[in-house]
Amino acid sequence: MQRPLSRRRFIGATAAAAALPAAPNLDAIEPAPPAKPVSISSANGLATTARAVKLMAGGGDTLEAVVSGVNIVEADPKDMSVGYGGLPNEDGVVELDSCCMHGPSFNAGSVASIRDIKLPSRVAQLVLKRTDHVMLVGEGARRFAIAHGMKAENLLTDAARRQWLSWKENLSDRDDWLSAREAAAGHEARPTGTITCLGLNPAGERSGVTTTSGLAYKIPGRIGDSPIIGAGLYVENAVGACGATGRGEAVIISCGSRIVVENMRHGMSPAEAVEDVLQRIVKQTVDPRLLDKKGRPDFEVVLYALRKDGKHAAGSIYKGRQYAVNEGAGSKLHDCLHILDR
Length: 342
Ligand code: ASP
Hints:
- It is a single chain.
- The chain has 342 residues and is of the alpha+beta class.
- The chain has one domain (34-340): (Glycosyl)asparaginase (Glutamine Phosphoribosylpyrophosphate, subunit 1, domain 1, 4-Layer Sandwich).
- It has eleven helices and 13 strands.
- The chain has helices at residues 7-19, 26-29, 46-57, 62-74, 120-130, 138-147, 158-169, 180-184, 248-254, 256-265, 270-284; strands at 38-42, 96-102, 107-114, 135-137, 195-200, 206-212, 233-236, 240-246, 301-307, 312-318, 322-326, 331-335, 337-340.
- Helix 3 (46-57) runs antiparallel to helix 4 (62-74).
- The longest helix has 15 residues, at 270-284.
- It is globular.
- The N and C termini lie far apart (52 Å).
- Bound molecules: aspartic acid.
């Protein structure tokens, strides 16, 4: 039950509210959506953004466009960080995470730790469209996908199996089970990778999707940021969208994508919004296990932002990352901003 405000508390509350800056009127400060569809993605999304823009230009729904775009990478065994051919968990089993958001209906769908299904973003899209839920996990997500006619298949390719076997054979203190000694020592970077794709059409509708096999050799059942709304992805039609790749634990703890969108709501440009969250992540990283010799994070996070007017930016903690952009004239890689040099 809410307590009635005393006169003293009421005055205090009004004074605090008066001190807050007025929320900007986004319609007044930002121009209309772009004349042509725009799609941005992580650097592995050149073909993805091309397909997303083509579908949006033909009048396709923004969610269908971005999901169809990332399906290219999910089905590609050569990308060992997403979908089929992704590096497995520590038991040698591929477990996939994905979520999507549809701006016009402000709805979301997600699957986490799903096995045997090649295109997890399609399952996330089905959770959005064909359930009253947002998130399905593990065996329940798998059974839901099969009920919708998806094929259960072994996702472990020979190349991924060989890489996992070599890790397993050389296993020493490099797994995720931290003994008391290891918890106080360093943390070893392992192969990661993900694809995130955002799309915006001239009607101002936007959607996004993120999909991954997550951290290689993870503890079975480990869920990263990619299937978590507000972490690996956040979309708000009236403001903008953000997707994330990199160390999922840092993106979850910082609510990364959600804060980027919130920053844009309060008037920051996409670049400022991304930079602010990366700075927060650096400041929030205080566990010595996650710091390099210079006391800085020993991991990477990349955030990709697309504002309602089509302006975009992506940023990484360290220099050297790129992102894919398609504004109707072919997909190109752009440099990410960065906040630290190695
Ligand atoms: N964000 C992904 C995860 O933590 C991995 C990555 O993007 O590299 O599962």
